[in-house]
Task: structure prediction
Amino acid sequence: MIKTYFFLSIAIFCEVAGTMLLPVSQNFTKVIPTVCLSIFYLASFYLMTFVMDKLPIAIVYATWSGLGVFTIAILGYIFFKQTLAWQAICGLFLIVIGVVLVNSFTVKLG
Result:
């Protein structure tokens, strides 16, 4: 099970890296950032296929998207100087709490 969550973590990392490169690619006009973000997204989906064998798709997608949104919001604040209202920050922490709860009560696939 540790290997499954390791693959999920790397898939989340790849998805976040690809998303962070979207503004850098300037509407896909910059070749290197566009190629890199494509590789990151493909790697993310590829790694998620291994996770889907062990965990239900709803749990995998909720975890992947929830932690991705949380991480991108934090990195957007750090790197792109995007501001977040306190309500948005509270919502982000509720997402993380939800992801933890969902994964705590997950029934593993046989």
